[in-house]
Model the fold of this input.
Amino acid sequence: MASVFTFPDEPPRVNSPWRSGQDSGKRSNNERCVSTCAIADSEQTSDSEVERLEAEPQDGPIEYKLHLLVRPRRTYKTMSTTITPTGSRVNRKLKEGRSVKQSAPLASSSHSRQNRLHHLTTQLLWRLKQSSPEHATARGDLVVPQLPEDSAEIAILQEPAQLLPGLEESNGALYEIGVADDGTFVGLTKEEMDESMTTLKVMAASLGCRVEVQRMKAVGTCDWLEDPEQPHSRLHHEDLWVAEALIVPILDGRGRVTDDDNFAANGSPRGGASTTEQLRVSLTGPTNSGKTTILGTLANGTLDDGRGRSRSYLLKHRHEVASGRTSSVAQELIGYEGRSVFNYTCMDIKAWPDIHDRAQDGRLVFLLDSAGHPRYQRTTLRALVGWAPHWTLLCIAASDENAISNGTHSLTGADGALGIDVVEMDLAMAHLDLCLKLEIPLAILITKFERAQRDLLKKKLNSILTKVKATGRIPKILMKSESQAADFSEVPDQDQAKVQTEIIDAIAQTGDPLTVVPIVLTSAVTGAGIGLTHALLGSLPVPPMPTAHDFTGEALNPEQPQALFHIDEVFELSRSRMQSTLDHTSNESAPVVTGYLRFGRLSIGDKIIIGPFPAEDEDARAHVPNDHPSPGYGASLPHPSSAEYARLSARAALSASNVDGEWRHATIVNIRELRLPVQSIEAGQAGSVQVAFDALHEEPSGTEKIIEEHNDLVPKIRKGQVLAIPSRHMLETGLALQASTRFTARFVTSRRDPLPVGSLLNAYVGMVRSAVRVLKVTEVGEEESLLGSQKTTSEDHGIFGMSDHIELKRTKSEADLNIHNAKKYDVSLELLSNREWIELGARVVLLEGSIKDKSKGLDAFVGKVEEVSE
Done:
């Protein structure tokens, strides 16, 4: 299973055939070389020695053209170079001074001129795609501008249009003008060369590209009569020129070229982001509940064989294939438009960009699978919290012949260990508890329906319904259709109507997607409920586009950046030739980060900041692997010692004013929205961003030289960091994003003793996963803190104060307790590893770091960030 972001190791590059022809060419006496761009003197000298090029390659981004005229070409009396009597194939060489009889001229009608321009533009599009890392299907119609009758008005067509979809990652194409297919220099007069260049610029502009003339060289001379029909017509003698032009996509994200003649007066951003509706859904549930299998059936369109065949291509690691347990977050994409389902069942869908093409007017559902085993607890929270899903699909198997737990997490075996059967159902209820606490719209899939026993299924459903109703939500059970559809490329009419009337209309009446919890009985073996699941995914409401102040009002949180991107995974990649033109940095490395855009808009060419990074004088950067998450303590890891905590705490508790290099400047050089190359991504969309760090310009001196050399290296981006565009107010006032070591979160709980002061927990906030220490617990409305926190928060009274700890007795889950007994607590927390950027109002989840009862692994405290401090 590939990740959200897929890049080849070495994208195709555009290499000029002039370099390969330098060794075989010989300098001619009447040849001279000029350049319209900055070409080194040594290269100009080498160009003048080239007599011909290699033959035109059939494939690749290089095209040889005798000319690009859309009018009839004049007849020449003599030419000193090679001509092509028929077509563009060179058949013979003419001696200098020999008379030339041209082939029939091009027709001059407007219809034939337009057809020729369309043919030439289509040919250019094909050459541009040859240098793209992935030959994606074109998602936009080719629009060739209408040629005016007056050739003088053709200049207005050189204004660049929006970049044609599918060319975002093209490395460009080279056009050798005045060159025959076998590489022989034929040449054009200055007038014809100018007209050919104008035609090429019109072609490139219609595709959203620009033209850069690389070289121009005189290769011979010609004679032509001003009026061949007149006996005493004037004879003209001119030079013949060949030229090389590079056509490249406009990648600055603003629809402008850098040439002064074509530079737009305004800098308003243009389009380029995908407008297809995107729904992000996370699958969760206990191990062996069939999450990955049902996802494989939905995405692949094939039934399972009962032994997990449909999930095999989703597993990333060898140990996952061997054990059958998912340990990482896998992603899949499904498209919907009306009743049509676009997955790998469709013959013309081979990759995600094809799904984008088919679902342009519908919606895309981005599904994230997660691990269910308590050992991989962090991947479960990564899918539920880190990716901020719009909906959650909880999978509970109907086939387990397990005792029915009431969710108290207190059932044990005879020897004190959890019984195997009890653990499975207890974990299912623990996942349900967590989903209800997170207050994310929820749907439940009862999987493995073909193996269910009626009595046990009723008991399971009763337990689920009881918990759902205890939170004030309305469960809706969707019964499967009598006849199962054999084709999963289309949603059955009865399934679509059932979802619309029982779920979508009910949500519309309440106006809150949290109020209704759909429950679908499914089977990946028989196909039962698959149509209902597709209908549900294609119809569930999508939340409105997020903004910078939807967590808290602008008055409470005024210093928000213009755009914010949460980083999940990091990949190393070198910049392509075209991306290097977007900035002036010398670094060849351009890391790729994946995640989702919390709010704002990101475009290619935007100047951004990334961080927070450790202080420049620390050696921590060298010890943090590139793809290593924020440090935390898993279920099997012990808590650190006091000495270890003191070291971590001292490293994290730096004042923002003392941290140099915490935020690094960079430029966006590439963007993909769910593997689709785009120029921009909008708020709420998931995707990938490739960045190039700006070079540091500070001059090293003395002992700072070693540190400066270290800083010139590309910083190691890690999971949990953010990518942001500073707001205008931040730029004008010189303010920067504030990284934090402490924050306060508010929790609502019915437990009498919510958290002991000094305890160590794992905190999940956005993409951040970090070990934290509880500094203070205060009941809202009381002036004094609970559990002796006044003593423990003083730096003069030690680090932990563990003698005052009170052990918690979790006898019932919060869903089973009376909501009227719930109280609000403000809990002050300190990060133990790195300084992090934490958004005010963000959801925070706290879990114990070391537990003996695995069913308690998801018994979490869920709250919101109320205050952030340095």
